[in-house]
Design goal:
The protein has about 220 residues and is an alpha+beta fold. Helices cover about 15% and strands about 25% of the residues. The chain contains three helices and ten strands; from the N terminus they run H-E-H-E-E-E-E-E-E-H-E-E-E. The protein has helices spanning about 10-15, 55-60, 170-175, and strands at about 45, 75-80, 85, 95, 140-150, 155-160, 165, 180-190, 200-205, 210. Strands 1, 3, 5, 6, 8, 9 and 10 form a seven-stranded mixed beta sheet that branches. The radius of gyration is 17 Å and the shape is globular. The N and C termini lie far apart (about 40 Å).
């Protein structure tokens, strides 16, 4: 369920912030629409046969009710938080569980053995890329928000993988951002449906930031 940007009372906001991330804002602010409206145009689908725009719709509508449970949430692993990376060629982004280093293997993540469902060939149109009539996915998916730290429109990546290597055009967009705040949502879809709270969505407890170049 999508939250509006309605102003919350101080007590209610504090209670909600303990468990959920608030990605909305007050009406009339530049952030209006972050938790409202349709999926934006600036979305990259690197593996459209598994994670399509149709699957993203299900995660998108629930993203602002996502849990920040660090045992389930994913964060950017590489580049590391506060890192600066060279601008001359694309750098792969990788993410993993926030408490991966603290949790024993097999603990802290719902036991899901299903492989993402593959579908039919898709059609790409560059940035953004769009999938055409892809069968529903069963598996974990990741929505990665890359937001300019200085302000401006973010770029999103929706994928079934735990990494993404931008192409030259996508890297040029990121390079223009300079410093980038990264937030990651994850959910388990069963034929494009989230059936239970243990399946998410989950969201990074706080954004990670990296910088491209010497800004």
């Amino acid at each position: 369920m999508v939250k509006s940007g309605t102003r919350w009372g101080a007590a209610a906001a504090a209670a909600i912030a303990a468990t959920f991330i608030q990605c909305g804002s007050e009406k009339g602010s530049p952030e209006t629409g972050r938790c409202e409206g349709a999926v934006p145009d600036r979305v990259v689908y690197p593996d459209e046969r598994r994670a399509s725009d149709e699957a993203l719709e299900r995660v998108w509508v629930d993203r602002c009710d996502a849990s920040t449970d660090p045992a389930q949430a994913y964060v950017l692993i590489s580049p590391a938080d506060a890192a600066t990376v060279p601008a001359d060629q694309p750098v792969e982004l990788r993410w993993g569980r926030a408490l991966a280093s603290a949790a024993p293997a097999g603990i802290g993540r719902p036991a899901r053995l299903d492989a993402p469902a593959f579908g039919w060939p898709s059609i790409s149109f560059g940035i953004p890329k769009a999938a055409a009539h892809i069968p529903p996915i069963t598996g974990w998916v990741y929505l990665v928000e890359l937001r300019p730290a200085a302000g401006g429109d973010p770029l999103y990546v929706f994928t079934a993988d735990e990494s993404w290597l931008p192409d030259e055009a996508e890297w040029a967009e990121l390079r223009a951002m300079g410093s980038i705040d990264v937030t990651i949502w994850t959910a388990y879809l069963d034929k494009n449906v989230i059936y239970d709270a243990k399946d998410g969505p989950f969201v990074s407890p706080s954004p990670s930031r990296f910088t491209i170049g010497d800004r």
